[in-house]
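In response to reviewer comment 3 from the previous cycle, which asked for concrete evidence that the modeling workflow produces usable outputs, we include below a single protein chain processed end to end. The sequence was submitted unchanged, and the resulting structure tokens are shown without manual editing.
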Amino acid sequence: MWRQPRECAGEENVCKRVTKEFQNGTIWVTGAGGLIGSHIVRVAREFFPRAVVVPLTRSRLDLLDLKRVERHFRASKPGLVFHCAAMSRSPDCEASPSIAEKVNVDASRNLVELCMESKLVFFSSDQVFDGKTPPYSEAAQANPLSVYAETKVKAEQIVLANPAHLVIRTSLNGGPSPTGDRGFNEQMRKAWETGRELTLFVDEFRCAIHAEETARVACELALRGCSGVFHVAGRERMSRWDLGRLVAERWPGLKPRFKPGRLADYKGPPRPQDLALDCRKAVGVLGREIPGISEWLSIRPEDIF
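The workflow returned the following structure tokens.
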């Protein structure tokens, strides 16, 4: 059974003591076929070398089959669950809100009910905010503008009803994914491979982060027994235009085509303008800064991006 270290209890969530509760047990990673989930699988095996890390993809275990999930959970008895699975593409959520509710809320509720004696790490999003008053701390009021964001807020509330659980709000994640189309960089690259020209907003800002860094911070926070809400994002505030230029520099052979745009000219569902996250709480626990995406690539120039 997982127990929250005494030093990490309470409102401040100051995590000073490293717990070894997960070292010899079973760890579940849902959404293991996705961007963050695939990196969590690899990094968790590094952080918890004696644990059995179980990567769960939809083909292996459909989280919407609640009874089957319960049977597998009872048999496996994971002490730690990284819940990365989600319906995360906002246009898909807008088109099918009932499915988004089932995937992002109902499946999460089922896992929370099963994790009464296990620790759950839930991945949420900077999109729970409206983008009007950045930078956002963990205490800032959520104001979702999209179906996707609404489902994340609902799921957060369910997860946080258990004070031992951990919610990580992250930003735009990049890096390689198993399917080659989950990172923002991969989506841009695929568009350019087909000759498409992208319109990238010069006035929409995110704190992009490499998915491996997200995975490392998540594993360290879990290892330290942290609970509550933590913001995990890169320390660079960059526009979509800036991010496009960064990706284009890595793939000049594709002859990337993109033009600047402004949110005022966008005709789709509402988009938050500035989702800069205040990550000082996580930085205080880690004892180091969280690198932005350009910093990461300067440190790891060989990274497939």
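Confidence is low (pLDDT under 50) at residues 1-14. We consider this sufficient to address the reviewer's concern, and the full set will be provided in the supplementary archive.
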